[in-house]
Amino acid sequence: MKENLVPESIRVVVGVWQQCRQDAMPIRHDVFIVEQHVPPELELDKFDAVATHVVAYSEDGQSVGTGRLLPDGHIGRVAVLKVWRGRRIGRQIMQALMQQARQQGLPGVELSAQYHARSFYEDMGFQAEGGIYMEAGIEHIAMRLVF
């Protein structure tokens, strides 16, 4: 696993699912299944095994955020624990995922953004494509960033 130190004493670790699962799963469970009521069978999928994962840790070692990058350049499962939001941790996770995509030689990245988070991704250069659609009972919009 590779580590990057980022502002606010947040440590971002990049690794594979076997390395990140123990710390990423509780975050994804709390954010997607408990908070957003996403059915567990939709949240967990076969793509975790082939994705590059990122986990953000607080100064005391608590895992506070996560995200993944699929081999085709799709970013997903970006989540930050509620009490840690508003501290630019999501941005740090996204930057780490985009850096991984560049290192893998991908021409860009895409994601299915929850519509309420559209401006978060636009601030990082993503552009919306198409209209709003429902996924797991939540409004989403497709977004893309070309490097």
From TrEMBL:
**Record InterPro entries:** Acyl_CoA_acyltransferase (IPR016181), GNAT_dom (IPR000182), GNPNAT1-like (IPR039143)
Residues of the N-acetyltransferase domain: 11-147
One Pfam family per UniProt: Acetyltransf_10
- Origin: domain of life: Bacteria
What is this protein called in UniProt? GNAT family N-acetyltransferase
